[in-house]
Amino acid sequence: MRILSIETSCDETAVAVLEGIPANEGGAAAGSAARFTVLGNALLSQIDIHKEYGGVYPMIAKREHAKNLVPLLDSALTQAGMVAKGEDGLSDELRAEITQILEREPGLADALLAFLSETARPDIEAIAVTAGPGLEPALWVGVNFARVLSRVWNLPIISVNHMEGHICAALAQLEDPQHISIPDIKLPLLSLLISGGHTELVLSKEWGSYELVGATRDDAVGEAFDKVARMLGLPYPGGPEVSKLAERTREANRDSGYKLPRPMIHDAHCDFSFSGLKTAVLYQVKDMDLTSEQKEDMAREFEDAVGDVLYAKTKRALEETGAKTLALGGGVSANTHIQRTFRERLAEDFPDVHLAIPVPALTTDNAVMIGLAGFYHALKQDFAESDSLRADGNRKLRA
Length: 399
Ligand code: KG4
Ligand code: ZN
Known about the structure:
The protein is of the alpha/beta class. Helices cover 44% and strands 19% of the residues. It binds 5'-O-[(R)-(carboxyoxy)(hydroxy)phosphoryl]adenosine and zinc ion.
């Protein structure tokens, strides 16, 4: 099954073309095992634009997605060898419909009309698009773009939950940049999803079904990283910058002089809270002229506190659920210290639990993971109604 996938939930615009084959007879009923060939993969990060403002502005993100989607579609399809000259097959009626679907994005409508009028229908079977969670204006651009492609090429749409994409990315084994396999994972699967907008523990008793086990009661962990980075005078996105500083004190083997709280670490539930931790950093750094060593020490203590809390809550969830596979997903799962903490402590506490961590190329937002998640829905013929497809900034994973 060949799928075109589109991701525009935050500050990355991405389009990919994947071919997926279930590894076992029985397709969807056979679980997670499948092999994928990445035929095309195009991504543009807006980080340099948002850096100037110190964070992501939804309306700027939306404008950039609208500008970049057609060139990225062209690039992904070209890589896949699927761009062929077509005859102008767009009737006036179809053109009017496209303009109507993209009425809020006139620039995108013009670029897409020009592309579609000279390009033949590619050899794909479905279109997967992130419909949430994420920044709603940004999501809408991708959703409406997918609706146009679905209409013109007469292809079904798969409405993908962005977090399900992060779970698939964690489970994906990269044989080489073009070849991915997802093994037959042992259930139950527990996923710790940690990104700029999310911090949650999700249980899959069956492949493709989700129950929320715990979640942040205030800030997401990526948000806390980004805010602490700002307090330390570091650029956006803060996660990787904080990590770089923290690793320096660890290399120097210096004892961090700072002490921060581990919120809710002993509470008998699997929820998180990061806003108190962030405020504790603020109290210790505000109006202070920190030396670079002090900044490194603070970054390290912050990371240690985050790692301790994430692991303690995940440990509790593993005990409560008896999960056999643990997946770490979302941008924050790129963090070296968090990965190390989970590898070391899990090997000690749960030697039989398999830990799945995404490869770097699939850790932050991308369209490949949306294609992977979309593939399993397509196998079940779980397609969306194009006319009623909506972007949902708060979309939840469902049972
Ligand atoms: O999943 P993602 O790319 O976008 C969302 O869906 O939110 O995650 C972005 C978040 C940002 O908050 C960023 O600071 C954080 O992931 N992040 C990191 C690291 N790399 C990215 N946080 C800590 N350490 C990192 N190495
Ligand atoms: Zn994400």
